[in-house]
Amino acid sequence: MSAHTIISGSTGSGKSVxxxxxxxxLIRDVEDWxxxxxxxxxxxxxxxxxxxxxxxxxxxxxxxxNLLKKAVKRMFDRYDRMEREGWKEWPGSHIYILADExxxxxxxxxxxxxxxxLLRLGRAARVHVIAANQNAARTNGCPSHLRVNFTxxxxxxxxxxxxxxxxxGCAGCESLPLFGYCYVFTPQDLKPELWKITMIEExxxxxxxxxxxxx
Length: 215
Known about the structure:
Layout: E1 5-9, H1 15-29, E2 35-40, E3 56-58, H2 61-85, E4 94-99, H3 102-105, H4 109-121, E5 127-134, H5 144-147, E6 152-155, H6 161-168, E7 181-185, E8 193-196, H7 202-213
Parallel strand pairs: 1-5, 1-6, 2-3, 2-4, 4-5
Antiparallel strand pairs: 6-7, 7-8
Helix pairs in contact: 1-7, 2-4
């Protein structure tokens, strides 16, 4: 996953399933020196199994603010090195910043300021933001100046057409089943693509994490 990604949907539509799928395949298939995993988990329990694999882990919104500030510093440190070496793109590890409960995080002006820089400038430095946003309430929408830089937008079931437009820029998510399918929209797509969501069993996730921890 090289783009910034935002996942939006109503409660129970499968946001956590999609994120768990991404984390499962990242940790299982990618050599650990090729990436760093940074997680903001305000509920503290959804991604606790992944803590041993995280470079940074924040359990509160204030801690999340500090994590994002630290990520901005890391990004500019990389740009300083890129300038000195004449690199157009960072040649080293990717940094994946997973921000759950994105609507809560957006209430912090400091977090929004950090996210704005990461979303605008992160790609060449291989810093990627993956945000999960509960879109059941229209007030939870992502501000347009941030949303425009999420180059991959994933919409799960939403309550109505307005919420769907917040999620993927057009109607359609309101017609999805409550769970099992999503629309994925990227700049290369003329229209959103319908994807089926396959859930990885929790027992398999725990088995894989235990196996990877031994390596």
